[in-house]
């Protein structure tokens, strides 16, 4: 890939940093490649650089789990829209499915994932030759395989067939960087291989300062999700449903019917999943780590969801719910899909903001004749009570996979493989119970149970960068895609099968003579 001729150079040592800081990347001096990759500290730094693309941020960069998945992906779905503060034309075109292969956000998603994969490939080539503690070396290589699998998992779901690069490319001639796409099935096979090898060598837990790194349980949980995705649309490898069940049960705790010994469970209070004071708790299987106001390591999502003009708060209201018509209500949104007793609703959203300057409440009423006194719901999952208007950042971690999702993966896969069994009900009902909802009605058909799991996934995981991927893979009883119907339901009448995958960025095609555009985008 001609576009990624980066050389991983000197980064400050991280071995003694706190859990929030270990992902930080700070170039201090230029070193040649021959001078680097000599010591244990070099190896640790090189792996930390692979983590870097999960959480880095700042005024000039968006990375996948720090804003880019929202501006470059979620806006294309059925739950979110760009608010008044989102003026970028690439973001707004995505939100109405009017994007093209020259869309900057679509390019950035591609570029940042491949840049991270490039760093992973450097690690996997260079670290084995460094002489240092073999146990630590094995762990670092396992972490790197986990991360490479995660980055490829995102790419294959976003773009379909993609180039599969597994070696450190350091060519002289630009033409040597040209590489054709690999079929999605081959990409998934490599993802499975990396995660299986990672799970075999990674530890179950970490002590400070390494809390937050990839674990064996995280590799198994992510692999269960990979299996479920392959069994779903568009691949439809139905045998993978049972693989997803089996792998999920290796990570589930014994109380939930699994054999895992990782200490995972739901926290009792849904709000504690997201509040920075409770980060890396027993529900977080693997998360992007954030620290507010610290060298661009803060989560930049929170101010984007805050109403503009509140004295003392630095909100720009760039992210809002998508409104659509349902019945007589022209301001229906995902907020109204929650039942009034669902405890998740008032954690996921707030209806007003209290100014720290004058103590007054600020809201945004809606002139909705169908719902008297209606007002705008604002996303609230990444709120940070300890943050100030000056920092403009949150310390809230972003869960990449958490225990509630593992339970939902297990429930869905078990239903597809074996029908709505007692095991499937148990996993889904545990998530519902924490939300304050009654157990799901007994005696449902497989199709009815599937629809119930889909709805609870949508409500449980909204604003966590999951919905777009679910829109792609979910289906009806006849195994037909529901992507177009779900998009048209919320007013995106131009939704078409081609929108399931993003187009390959045109700049990449221009730089790579072997790279071809996705068929429906030609």
UniProtKB/TrEMBL annotation:
Q: Which parts of the sequence belong to the SusD-like N-terminal domain?
A: 101-228
Which CDD domains does this UniProt record tie to the protein?
Answer: SusD
Q: Which residues form a coiled coil?
A: none
* Source superkingdom: Bacteria
Where in the cell does this protein reside? Cell outer membrane
Check the record and name the Pfam families matching this protein: SusD-like_3, SusD_RagB
InterPro entries listed in its UniProt record: SusD-like_N (IPR033985), SusD_RagB_dom (IPR012944), TPR-like_helical_dom_sf (IPR011990)
Q: Tell me which SUPFAM superfamilies the record gives.
A: TPR-like (SSF48452)
Domain (RagB/SusD) ranges: 317-521
Listed A to Z, the keywords are: Cell outer membrane, Membrane, Signal
Family as reported in the entry's similarity comment: Belongs to the SusD family.
Query: Protein name, please?
Result: Membrane protein
Give the organism, scientific name: Dyadobacter endophyticus
